[in-house]
Write a structure and sequence with these properties.
With 280 residues, the chain is of the alpha+beta class. It folds into two domains: 2-119, no CATH class; 131-279, Alpha-Beta Plaits (2-Layer Sandwich). Helix content is 65%, strand content 12%.
């Protein structure tokens, strides 16, 4: 079901609108030939639901009016209008209200689904993507690199002496440090790149199509900005990072992260507050 909805959402809006329009006309024609022996409300709900989910609520409302109009025209040509103007108006309003209500419910449901999808991929504290979102982006980058070989760089970084900040200033300040770190990381990369918090004080960057020289430039800028931020707040922290440029894509995302993490850990062992790079 989820896969089917995803496929429908990828349809161009014009295709959805045209298909729904054709369906409405076909339902109107069927109603004309069959008449009131069969309730057609449920059939008109099909194109309304389809266009609401794939295009949006306003389109759903528009097709609600179109469906009621089509129903009314079919009644005229079929000779089914046996009630007076007042009850005719009441029936039309009730049909329209039903269709619009369904469009509204579906629109609200889709919004809720999209918000849940987004929340599942966003780190609650910092507002940047989480581990799950990074893995998805990294898998796409590996697939892209296999199709069109170009280097890309993965950077693994964490905050030196982060525990000391929590112990000395409290967890609220620690959270503030994490949030500011995430903001600086996000501001210093492009939209096509990915920044994520893997957990705790560990962050990872995926620099798409970036070679070692380009990564060195980004990392130096990041290090300067992060250091300036820590000094401004008088927080006794520094940053260690390992940056691995892949000229050949790794087999898995875990392999990608492990290489960068291992390089970062070697920085920790050799005194912290440093960036180490390598190509693979």
């Amino acid at each position: 079901m989820s896969r089917m909805l995803t496929t429908l959402e990828r349809l161009p809006s014009v295709v959805s609108l045209v298909c729904s329009f054709v369906i409405v006309l076909l339902i109107g024609a069927a109603y004309y030939f069959i008449g009131s022996r069969l309730s057609f409300s449920v059939f008109f709900l099909i194109p309304i639901a389809f266009v609401t989910w794939t295009v949006g609520y306003k389109s759903g409302v528009a097709y609600s009016f179109l469906s009621v109009l089509t129903w009314y025209i079919a009644d005229i040509y079929d000779g089914e209008l046996t009630v007076g103007p007042f009850w005719l108006a009441v029936n039309l309003v009730l049909r329209l209200a039903l269709f619009i209500a369904v469009a509204w419910v579906l629109s609200a449901l889709k919004k809720s689904v999209e918000e849940h999808k987004l929340a599942a991929r966003i780190d609650v504290l910092t507002g940047i993507p989480n581990r799950r979102a990074f893995y998805e982006a990294a898998q796409l980058e590996i697939a892209r690199a296999n199709r069109n070989p170009k280097p890309f760089t993965v950077v693994f970084t964490d905050i030196d002496n982060f525990k000391n900040v929590n112990d000395r200033y409290g967890h609220l300040i620690g959270d503030r440090l994490l949030t500011l770190t995430a903001d600086i990381l996000r501001q210093n990369v492009r939209e096509i790149d990915q920044v994520a918090r893997l957990g705790g004080d560990e962050f990872v960057l995926l620099l798409s199509g970036t070679d070692a020289n380009g990564a060195a430039t980004v990392m130096e800028r990041l290090r300067n900005d992060l250091t300036a931020m820590a000094q401004m707040y008088h927080w006794p922290v520094t940053y260690s990072a390992g940056a691995v440029t892949f000229t050949r894509p790794p087999e898995t995302v875990d392999e990608m992260i492990t290489k960068a993490d291992t390089l970062m850990y070697s920085v920790k062992q050799s005194g912290k507050d440093h960036i180490r790079q390598e190509n693979t």
